[in-house]
Amino acid sequence: MKKYFITGLLIWIPLAITFMVIAWIVSTLDRILLWIPEHWQPKVLLGLDIPGIGVAVTLLIILLTGLIGANVLGQRLVLIWESLLARIPVVKSIYSSVKQVSDTLFSSSSHAFRKALLIQYPRQGAWTIAFLTGKPGGDAARHLSGDYISVYVPTTPNPTSGFFLMVPRGDVIELEMSVDEALKYIISMGVVTPGKRAEVPLPAPVET
């Protein structure tokens, strides 16, 4: 009986967690309908409440925004909008920082989060998985002697929080696993073991 019960749990727990996560995402995106005037909301127009329609509306807004921002007029509007935000003291700092991070992460030429690494953290002899985010820059790079890279060390089981480190390239071991496999490994606290894949080299060393 114990064996059968555990087998049942192994089947239902992933399904239940998946359902709860998807339900939370759908319910969160459905709240975007609150931005629409009441007489234009789908519930009023169609006469019934359709779960998940907020997801479709959100995806449509993102797609339309991308279509508008891809042409010359849209790019001009974006520049005007960004210059307006740049004049607001607190908003300026938050927006510029978030935009720089998002532009770096989603850029097709960026090396950010393209490689899983093995580093010693938080002390010598203790190893953890980190992700390559680039190379140190600005005043920080001028104070570092040698070839350094920037890495992000996520926490377990929530990889959205973590630590930013600048470590010598020689202290880093490149892992033969994708970023997705490394994230699964971290989230599962080492239970889900990733397979092997072709090695992706780190960016070329900085010439001195």
Automatic annotation (TrEMBL):
InterPro entries, per database record: COV1-like (IPR007462)
Organism of provenance: Denitromonas iodatirespirans
UniProt keywords, alphabetically: Membrane, Transmembrane, Transmembrane helix
Coiled coil: none
The UniProt record lists the keyword Transmembrane helix: yes
Transmembrane segments: 7-26, 46-73
Protein name per the record: DUF502 domain-containing protein
